[in-house]
Amino acid sequence: MSQISEIKKIAFIGDYLPRKCGIATFTHDLRGAMAEQYPGVESFVAPVNDLLEGYEYPTEVRFEFSENDLDSYRRTADYLNFSNADIVCLQHEYGIYGGPAGSFILSLLRNLRMPVITTLHTILQGPSTDQRQVLQEIGLLSARLVVMSERGRKMLREVYNIPEEKIDIIPHGIPDMPFVDPNFYKDQFGVEGKHVLLTFGLLSPNKGIENVLRALPEVVKKFPNLVYIILGATHPNLVREHGEAYRLTLERLAQDLGIKRHISFYNRFVDLEELKIFLGVADLYITPYQNAAQTTSGTLAYAFGSGKAVISTPYWHAEELLGDDRGVLVPFGDSKAMTRAIIGLLEDDTRRHAMRKRAYLLGREMVWSKAAQSYMACFENARRNPTSPSIRRLEVRTLEEERLELPDLRLDHLARMTDSTGIYQHAIYSLPDFTHGYCIDDNARALIATVLLEELELEGPKLHRLAETYASFIQYAFDPELKRFRNFMGFDRHWLESEGSEDSQGRTLWALGTCAGRSKHRHLQAWAAQMFERTLPSILDLKSPRAWAYTLLGIYEYFRRLSGDRLAAQARDTLTQRLIDIFERTATDDWPWFEESLSYANALLSHVLILSGRWADNPRAFEIGLRSLRWLISVQKAPQGHFRPIGSAGFFVRGGKRADYDQQPIEAHSTISACLEVYRSTNDETWHEEARIAFEWFLGRNDLGLSLYDSKTGGCRDGLHIDRVNQNQGAESTLAYLIALSEMELLEHDLKAFRKPTDHETEALKVHSLAKA
Question: If you average pLDDT over residues 34-38, what whole number do you get?
Fold first, then answer.
């Protein structure tokens, strides 16, 4: 059964098949299990190469980097950042990365902008100085660390000072194999009626196979039909340096011991399906490693989970996995103890099969499907609770610090996103995304932005052309029979629906009212006033409170020039009363709000009632607007004092837990507009300050300390995720920023016009006048 996750894209780093390496197999199997369990999640691999020519990788490999090329690590970080991956899953082993103790990987990690989850395949109890420093910094740069045993977690705490809360134990994944009698497969190898021992994995001297060979002469005396299969190619690094010397040593030892006919070498790197057959044929599996300092063994996990009776030396992973008579442990280098263990299990069928069953049952918790689910829980935890410097959090400045200056108004991105039809909905980074075409929501916002920017006397002819483009889109969207507006249009300029959403109708009325009431161009005023009058009556049939609220904004803008319109005044009173009614039905002392949840553009609802209180002499509306906005501000204020809008990834349902992410620019804009309206109504400087706090969210005073405004493009990024900024600069986000900045600038102009000049300004004016004279 496929699973659903909030994660949409995962990048895996490690080495990868067809490279012959246990970690390459692990990365391949983990990525495959994730793809199978979560088909809706995209995943790709960025492997490290130990060969200049690289490997013939499968299609999921998107980017490669070279073990000993430091610059390639930095390029990989750039690629991963550009890929928009939600999570990077790193496989760490000192030997597969370049630099002292594999330190080159740190260059990659330091430059990533998303959470990193690192699986540690080797944890040393007595690391060198370089090894300790590398692992400790990986711990700092990773949101979470995955180990495969309790011993690994203990060592991370005690040897490397990694916090307990940052560590997850996820057992090494294994294929889900049936529990079968070994005799079922023996005819495929010509070993019917024989006892079969198996060791598999890449051959190298530290595997201790010679100790098993020395144990066998006494075993074959008792079980002359015994075969010991040694499966696996010699480790590629060993082959490059010493050829097949180690394998030849083992062959000579078998001959010297007189057991050569009992030994079968399979000198190749087998795939999973073939490995299953080899595992199936074995009566006993043996791991005779010579070093205790091994927290993970993939070969042990595979054999154990498939229900093999296992004999092993007591390295750390084996001690933990084979306890409680789930296997047999023998001392390192003790061939006589190995002899006794083999004979004991082959003689005692009852014990051997009971051991197999215990191992198999425990192994069901280790199958790759469950490992994938555990990894996904780890990934989601990392995104929800980012604690890593790899996320590049900046310290959020306190409100006592100096205010941030308002940026200059720029039309670069607005113009880039607009063609002769209108403004595109979405962007990929700062490039218009043609795929999703246009919508009236954004063209209405864009028309509002141009009107406000005109008031600030910004780039007249260029701005006027943009305004006419957005007005033309609105005109074309109008259906005279329904007296409603269509919303979505494809890039091919065909409408994708016959009637737009209720909110899109309200936003369009807002734009028309703003254009009629504030535009400096008579033809646009006249057009907008006529369209406003034609469409206003249909709004009264709508059920959406936000559609009502957007319409009320439009009415008050319309009244700047045409305040004698009785039909508009009646609509204003009707819609205002509707908002009052839903507030009085829903609000309580601890939830003074209009709805059962806080969702999007929340402050808009408070804003329009404050407007009605101010301009329509409606004290009840003003009281509700102010009360609800005060509460909303308190809900959207972080403990450090900065603005923290309700996140769109779940919103905030009454009685539930608020979503902190994904934070959207539309929330900052609606809060700014509402606070500025209260300030104009009350002259209470507190509300001006609240508007500044909300605006500075765009500039980096937010939970991540990252700016959503892009000073290079003039655009605004699409939102603040739990771990990074969404780098796309779509229309809604950019327009929310531009309208908010315009409103802030217009207020600053008003304040300068009415305040008394300072002595310095008076003196400067005198000097200017004298110079002019």
Answer: 95
